[in-house]
Specification:
Length: 129
């Protein structure tokens, strides 16, 4: 076993995971802010005038859109080249974090103010007991 090669490959893999995480994080923040800009400020007064079922339908459609954005992002990020790909036989495409867009998903949803306000509004209007 060549320990030097093993250490180099694992070091490259750690750098690659950081590279992938940074890309997903930045894309999550940027796309969340674009969505907020497009949707504008959340107007609670206007939202409360809507029927609850309609607000829930809007949220469901918005979640559908979020799912599509996550899918597209998860398929685009692997196309971004990693500068150290191929060194000592390292294969960037085999890093599992590349196709696991969990960092993007969490960041994307977390930084969407409109989405969060809409969910809070719906929960405040739902009477469970």
């Amino acid at each position: 076993m060549n320990y030097k090669k093993e250490i180099v490959i694992r070091s490259i893999k750690i750098l690659d995971i950081g590279f992938i995480t940074a890309i997903y994080l930045l894309l999550g923040i940027i796309l969340a802010k674009i969505c907020d800009t497009y949707l504008g400020e959340f107007d609670e007064e206007k939202e409360n005038k809507k029927q609850l079922w309609f607000s829930i339908l809007e949220l469901t459609l918005y979640l559908w859109l979020i799912g599509i954005i996550i899918y597209i992002t998860r398929n685009i990020v692997p196309l971004i080249p990693f500068p150290l790909d191929g060194i000592y036989g390292f294969d960037h495409s085999k890093v599992k974090e590349l196709t696991s867009a969990i960092t993007f998903s969490i960041t994307f949803v977390y930084f969407q103010n409109y989405y969060q306000q809409k969910i809070k509004n719906i929960f405040s209007r739902v009477k469970l007991l």
